[in-house]
Design goal:
Strand content of chain A: under 5%
Helix content of chain A: 55-70%
Order of helices and strands of chain B: HHHHHHH
Number of helices of chain A: 11
CATH class of chain B: Mainly Alpha
Distance between the termini of chain A: 46 Å
Radius of gyration of chain A: 21 Å
Strand content of chain B: under 5%
Oligomer: heterodimer
Structural class of chain B: mainly alpha
Structural class of chain A: mainly alpha
Shape of chain A: globular
CATH topology of chain B: Fumarate Reductase Iron-sulfur Protein, Chain B, domain 2
Shape of chain B: globular
Radius of gyration of chain B: 15 Å
Largest sheet of chain A: 2 strands, antiparallel
CATH architecture of chain B: Orthogonal Bundle
Number of strands of chain B: 0
Strand order of the largest sheet of chain A: 1-2
Number of domains of chain B: 1
Helix content of chain B: 40-55%
Largest interface: A-B, 34 and 30 residues
Chain lengths: ~220, ~140
């Protein structure tokens, strides 16, 4: 059983994850069309700014953005999402397994660094849980499904931390760690965790007022 | 006025028509609904939310989830009472100014506008001369 979990099940999870994302990627292009027109780029010739003016204009550009309205949440969510993807990819243990299995691996961070970053992810998740529990506006739209999604996202980090520090029974914790990773990979394309892909498609490819890019497509 | 009101209240809900409308935009709207992280970061971009002492009912996400979201969850099988409740959400609690901001990129105004279309198809819409304890405009 353990051999299956550590072997084929991980491969199945990766296949489902990749195929699921490809399916949604194709669906996105089927549901959207090429944008027929775009606003011409603004040609504003600004005068050379002093460092003080530059700092002032940078701060002014934050007005009305999440960095200004919710600075703490914005920092926490940015850190959480970057490390949620980055830590597993650049974890030494994972890369050693990748190298053994498929003969390829990413560059690895030092274990002491990934250990701290794992704690950072767990702290961020605890912060989100706190928001769901104690903030009226978040509670108003929270369902049991939201707690489940948060658990799916953070479980691999919690169990990975326990396994690294050899808390509880190592083999059991490691099995739960692998299973939680498998569950996360499989559920990403089919749950709201799919915003990992759709964030980039919506914010960069769909041309709207809040796009990060000019946007080549429209609904 | 009384005739219009009673017509609105007595007309049976055409579930098939609602289901047909929901189905036409299913791809886009269900994606919007299912990728909403329920983070509430859209809240303060809504001036009505700010104006109503940060009442969660005025959050853009709350409005979308409790109108269009409910229609999809119930697969269009709704009664007139529920549609009338949604009327307040999509017309009174939202003016479709388009200022709501979603960090994921979900276009909330299009969801509210679509919910309005569905409600209008069932003759559920505010009457400017209707007797109401609350002002619509």
């Amino acid at each position: 059983m353990l051999a299956f979990i550590r072997g084929q099940l991980i491969s199945i999870a990766f296949v489902v994850f990749v195929l699921g994302l490809i399916f949604h990627f194709i669906q996105f292009f089927r549901l959207t069309r090429k944008k027929e027109w775009a606003y011409p780029p603004l040609e504003i010739k600004s005068q050379k700014k002093t460092p003080g003016q530059w700092v002032t204009s940078c701060l002014a550009s934050l007005n009305g953005t999440l960095w200004k309205t919710y600075p703490v949440v914005t920092v926490m969510t940015s850190v959480f999402h970057v490390f949620l993807i980055g830590v597993p990819l650049f974890l030494l243990g994972h890369n050693m397994l990748l190298s053994q299995s498929w003969g390829l691996s990413f560059w690895s961070l030092r274990e002491s660094v990934t250990d701290v970053l794992t704690v950072v992810v767990i702290v961020c998740a605890a912060f989100f849980l706190g928001r769901r529990l104690f903030l009226a506006r978040v509670r108003a739209i929270t369902t049991a499904y939201d707690y489940l999604v948060l658990l799916i996202a953070v479980a691999p980090f919690l169990t990975g931390y326990f396994a690294y520090h050899q808390w509880f029974d190592y083999r059991t914790v490691m099995t739960i760690h692998i299973l939680s990773g498998v569950v996360m990979l499989i559920t990403i394309p089919f749950t709201k965790l799919g915003h990992m892909l759709f964030f980039f498609l919506y914010r960069f490819l769909i041309g709207t007022e809040y796009s990060f890019a000019r946007g080549a497509r429209a609904w | 006025m009384e005739n219009t009101m009673s017509h609105q209240e007595l007309k049976p809900v055409d579930t098939k028509q609602i289901q047909g409308m929901l189905s036409r935009k299913k791809g886009k709207m269900k994606r919007f609904l299912s990728y909403c992280a329920h983070c509430s970061l859209c809240a303060e971009s809504c001036f009505l939310y700010m104006e109503h002492h940060k009442d969660p009912q005025y959050m853009p996400s709350y409005k979308a989830i409790n109108s269009l979201g409910k229609l999809y969850r119930k697969n269009g099988k709704v009664d007139r009472k529920l549609l009338t409740e949604m009327k307040g959400i999509v017309w009174r609690n939202c003016v479709l100014c388009g200022r709501c901001y979603c960090p994921i990129g979900i276009h909330i105004p299009s969801m509210i506008a679509f919910a309005r279309s569905i409600l209008r198809s069932q003759d559920v819409y505010p009457q400017l001369d209707e007797v109401s304890s609350e002002s619509w405009l």
